[in-house]
Write a structure and sequence with these properties.
Helix content: 40-55%
Number of strands: 13
Shape: globular
Radius of gyration: 21 Å
Length: about 450
Amino acid sequence: MKRSWKQSVKRQTAVCLLGMAVLGMAACGGKENMDNNLITSEKEDKRVVRLFSPMEKTDPDAENIARSASDKTVIMAEEELDISVEYVTYTAEDYQEKTYDDVAIDRVRNNMDDLYLLNPDAIQKLAEEEKLMDLSGLDSAKNLREVVKAANVVDGKLVAIPQEVAAYGLFVNKEMFDDCELELPETPEDFLECCRVFKEKGIDTPVGANRWWLETFVLAQAYADLYNGGNTEKEIAALNSGESKYSDYMRPGFEFLQELIDRGYIDVEKAIVSEAIEAEGPDFLAQKTPIVMAYWGAANTDTAYGNPDFELQVIGFPSSRGQMPVISMTGIGIGVGSEHAEDAMRTLEVMTSDEALQVYAETNKVISPSKNVEVDCISALKPLNDRIEENVFVLGSNAGMKLEQWGNTCLIVRKLLEGATVDECMEEFDRLQEEASSD
């Protein structure tokens, strides 16, 4: 049971985070064949740095009009440092036994590459094993937002740096709210009232949900005070020591979800089997469902919610402190056993410089990890962006917490959807906390 649970956590995190963080990658929740699915590029005439990631690019010098934002920053490093970045890529098309996280952790432990794009749970595990280098000395580290430091500092060491901050929020059809004379919800009570009115107006399912992202409601309510009340370090220390219980933080959010289920505001049977966006997206775009949840980038692309036939607004999740963004992120780390450690550090320095992150942010229209880089967001994202600029947010992943948050919360929410009681879900958090404390 223990092994199966942790395997599921790693699979969930890979799907939800890396699946949306890098353009052009294969799905990250799949399986792996070490011979067929790891693709390397050969380059012998320059100094070489090896980068392991889900990105598809076998020839660093290949002409590619559709290079991703991350590719552009790699090119900047190659040109400035006169090195060659060899991509080692993971593909999941055969859906075999190992997830991206499984393979990444194994490669770091065995010093197989230099740079690694990692999910939060992998960052936390490898940092605890002291397998990742401290990046605090990089010039780019000085420019990081506090939210990035909070998510990627373990035992005082900055072990990974992301190229974007992934913010989750509620995507709402403002016109449907206006038609029902409803204000956009601030608190859980506001949200329930909006759903009640929509239901009375004949909308069968006010909230479009999938099997991955309902944990955002829980995280927003659980940690609104922890991250915004001025005692963050003290409260996390109490959780890590066992003095405080994660279940006490989580209970209000789970009770809120249970009420949504009991009142029929969520289609539970559909949510359990639905992939993100694919299931709830069509009803949202067809104006049958007024509310869905998604990440920042989904508002910027025509393949998701970037071109609706109505006024789209993206706001934070309901909490005791008002609309609350939930933030999570991947990060690039360097293995302590890196064969080309010095060049890897210099490469990451360029890739995470303000100049490179400006290029990245402008290409992907995302929130930059650098406090010095800003990109104008579309009007639909302004409510969510305003809260983040005010430093009002909740972290969905925090490397300083002994108990991994994003994947574990998601899986326990799914237990609730499958019929577990709130008390049973809280018992699972208590069990996991005890397990994490004994590791």
